[in-house]
Amino acid sequence: MSKSTVAVDLKILAGRAARAARSLALAETSVKNLALATLAKALRSRARELLAASERDLAEAKRANGPLHILDRLLLTESRLADLIESVTRVQALLDPVGLTEDEKILPNGLQVCRLRIPLGLIAFICEARPSATVEAGALAIKSGNGLLIKAGKEMAEVSALLAEIFAAALTTVGLDSAAVTLLPSVTHDDLKELLTLVESIDLVIPRGGEKLIRFVSENSRIPVLKHFKGVCHLYVDKGADLGMAEELAINGKTNRPSTCNSLEALLVHQSEAATFLPPLGLRLELLGVRLKVDPAAAAFLPNAEPAGLEDWGCEFLNLTLAVKVVPDYAAALDHIARYGSNHTEVIATRNPGRAEHFLRTVEAGCVMVNASSRLNDGGCLGLGAEIGISTTRLQAYGPMGLRELTTTRFIVTGQGHLRT
Amino acid sequence: MSKSTVAVDLKILAGRAARAARSLALAETSVKNLALATLAKALRSRARELLAASERDLAEAKRANGPLHILDRLLLTESRLADLIESVTRVQALLDPVGLTEDEKILPNGLQVCRLRIPLGLIAFICEARPSATVEAGALAIKSGNGLLIKAGKEMAEVSALLAEIFAAALTTVGLDSAAVTLLPSVTHDDLKELLTLVESIDLVIPRGGEKLIRFVSENSRIPVLKHFKGVCHLYVDKGADLGMAEELAINGKTNRPSTCNSLEALLVHQSEAATFLPPLGLRLELLGVRLKVDPAAAAFLPNAEPAGLEDWGCEFLNLTLAVKVVPDYAAALDHIARYGSNHTEVIATRNPGRAEHFLRTVEAGCVMVNASSRLNDGGCLGLGAEIGISTTRLQAYGPMGLRELTTTRFIVTGQGHLRT
To answer: What is the CATH architecture of A233-376?
Structure first.
């Protein structure tokens, strides 16, 4: 197939998806919910096929020497699939934001003004090895009335092909246009560039994957991009913090699922707590296989650790590596986070209410936490039901993006012949 | 000055403005309000200078044969300045959205989650001959805690220089960094391109001006752009509409201030009303100097009108020209609007509640109106106090953008040692 043929095909597919999105935008909640119920049922009844497809994808990725965090993300296990089905069911149960009216008011001159919540339109979801994210994105798109054009990584080709069938069946079963969720077939680098110029059809691009993919998309897109850059999440252990709690936050943040963006990459410890806090934590982390990279002050309490290099601060390790630094005071922790943070998730462990409040109000990140694990920065864990990603830019959405972040409002105005004077 | 020197200067200016924006983001409401009061006072006390500067700008634009709608937008009259001062005072009186918490909830596991409203950061405001818009943008930026980097058109050079002084004084008087509102000195085309790549400092670009400027900005920006493309606003006069009211809506929509984006460009009339509605309206419009471009069906009732060409549908005339078409039914009006509308403002004159509701819910535009003049699609008229522009894209804001649209929320989370399982 020549390049130009593919480009035309993409344009046609995007146009078809945009038209399907316009009709999905007007679909009744009950119809969208039924599509989601059908989707959940199909994921359950075709679980064996999905797991087998995932095994084949994984085997291929291993043959290609894919990095460990990709292999981890790629794999659909029985328990992950169960979680995923539950997540689709949770999305089904969520309140449909579309069609809600907000900020209703009658102005002094009698003009009635309110905002009507509407979908964004057609979203291009560009991901690498993320079968779970793909399903969640599709479910959220259906519920929020948005079309979704999915370009999944070739690493998940087998699962993608199956998901394309499952989504199409779920939509057509309830009388919706199956093009509303379109999984694109294998797309080259040049095709992707072409896709990112289709401003007439696509309203928003959401890339999910490594920093390289996200940079490529940002730099080549003519369509607005919701960026989900790297997560370089810090835990700062304050003077007087509950050190037992802080230890659990550090261990959970680093080891719960190190390949994810909301895992801890660096630990900052107030100097007055370092001697008590670091040695037992170091021991436990060592037993859990965590490699520590430490600054000279922390090295005094972590004799087995390697010295951190300059490149380790602000690094998203995505594996069992943790940078550790002892800071002289709270202000130094804030400075470090401002310099090396990635606007993703920042945590303070503290017993001081003033510093807790100050941290929440001033630290620049989509999610700022007190005495909670960074791993909880997730649409599901924060009560959004599911998420399509975690935005680290401030436009349209900041932090986890759920249903509401996939909608906007238009002004609807009713007068009785009101004029502008 | 060599090109690279200018580029470096722009980068330095933007970096300085970004730092000032970070401190403005944390300023108390009372301090921001005092800055606005100082601004209003200065606009009042320096009115004579401003009007004189505007006269000089206008004279220069006339010498350069600037188009009529630019000349109109350029001019600051005494009454426009009074409106502007009132608008600054209105912004001062508005509730400060920054620091408000929303959606507070305690999840079943005890985790406290809420959203904290925060500014967007540093906004680049790129406009042509818009002195009023520049002042309103600055006032909204101060109140919403955002930095503003203003690149105003060279047509308003004299007014710009004065405004730069006035803004700087208002900020420094209350102890804020004057760089938070930076009016850039004369900037070339190449400099503007450079500015649009400063992703490290600038969070959002808002262009205000003609379609050409907005396209240039959209196509060259690496920073997200809130687009305010042309306003091709339609009024559809439904079967059974109150024709007296509809006539006033048509006249107000077209003639109140034809150079603005919320003016009517096309009138669609249900065939059953055309014979009654069009002849007297045509007469009044003619007396007001409006040039009509009509389809063959409308021509029967408007014998003096010119035939409309294909290019007249979807055209933003920005002057006293109105396209008129007779449509067979409501569906044909919807089709016409879907094809030629610009997602800006669409109006129906109707007495039928079902069609009113249907129009509000399904017509694709940032502002959809029933029985009200399109000219009322304006932040001030819709109760937002003031506006920084009217967005025709759906990301972050759709329709008029006021204070809230210049902010976002971050998640703030408080736990008692909550972990991810």
So the answer is: 3-Layer(aba) Sandwich (3.40)
